[in-house]
Amino acid sequence: MKILIVRNYPSYMAVKNNTYNIQEVGLAKALVRRGNICDILFWTDKEEETVTLPVDGSGEIKVFYRRGKTMLKNTVYTGCGELFEQYDILQPCEYNQLQAWLLAKRFPEKTVIYHGPYYASFNKRYNLMCKAFDALFLKSYIRRGTRFLVKSDMAKDFLVGKGISGKNVKTVGVGIDAQMLSSADGACDEKLYLQMKADKDALKLLYIGRFEERRNIPFIMDIFAAVLQKNSDARLYMIGTGDAGYVKNAFEYAQQLGVMDKIVWQERMEQKYLSEVYKSADFFLLPTEYEIFGMVLLEAMFYKTVVLTTLNGGSATLIDDGESGFIIDEKNAEKWASRIADVCEDKELMQAITEKASARIKNEFTWDALAEGFIEQYELKKKGR
Fold first, then answer.
1. Residue 335, class by beta-carbon neighbours within 10 Å (0-12 exposed, 13-18 middle, 19+ buried)?
2. What is the pLDDT of residue 126?
3. 186: confidence class by pLDDT, cuts 50, 70, 90
4. d(CA 114, CA 95)
5. First and final CA of the chain: distance in angstroms?
6. Which of 71, 171, 272, 308 is deepest in the core (most CB within 10 A)?
7. By the 8 A CB rule, do 270 and 239 touch?
8. Burial class for 52, CB neighbours closer than 10 Å (0-12, 13-18, 19+)
9. Predicted confidence (pLDDT) at residue 183 exceeds the cutoff of 60
10. H helix or E strand, kind and range, residue 230
11. Position 72 confidence tier, pLDDT thresholds 50, 70, 90
12. pTM for this structure?
């Protein structure tokens, strides 16, 4: 089968010398290992080029960098008609992207849309965009019986709630590329990691990701302050950055709480070194308002860090509350801190949680584990079902 994965966002994805888990690349590699031909179309505002990525002696992936018309985080590839004709399956992303709709209209017999977002009151701008899109284009999907692959059951409920038939929406999840998680050639000498090793006996809390409103960074500081009331030998390690004003306010708040001297922060770290950071941490905190899936959840669970997060697309799919992590929807720092304290006191429980979490990711949520689910849906589309 010849498959083309189409990323129709105007964001540049650098695959040369990449050490990050790019979802499209991870899925494409897994599909090639299964004996398929799978290539990727990425947007660029630079010179158009085609990059070839080898896949473990199984074949190769062609990555086409092409320009397109962009607006409101949409990209439409106006000059790729001949490229689209060459494939059996076209997989664009997100139901409300114009390129996805155009492919479903022009190539209804071979377009399968991979969708992640779901409804959340937090996403006011996205919700307005969906309302406008639905008024103009939604009926076309319903009429044609367009097939969707989705990242979570929350995303499935979102599409079915719009009138799209449930038989045309299949939850397949999101995977990780285990190779990219362990690609460091030498010892990690990042300052944050070295500090974690120096803080040998400290209780280690970890956050990795953007510093932004939906991620509730000040609330992480609240949780940390509550943890310190129970265990003064705790540390909070943070990797990420964001809008300068937001970052400044977050750390000023930490100063007000009196916890700044026990926070270790680093703006960036290469993906290949993050494995050592995850392995060294005890708990991973993600009190997010909204998360399509959350690669950091996959990674933290893979490396046996106890995850505490809110109900979101990723946690609803990955975590059995209390067994492979914790889902806490209350914005109550004391409750989060108490859960951490309770787990710390029960080492057998902590080990059981981390072992189950890691096994689930390794067995069910690598791209190789998920590939068959994608292929099954492609086959159904080819059969006109």
1. middle
2. 94
3. low
4. 8
5. 17
6. 308
7. no
8. exposed
9. no
10. helix 217-230
11. confident
12. 0.93
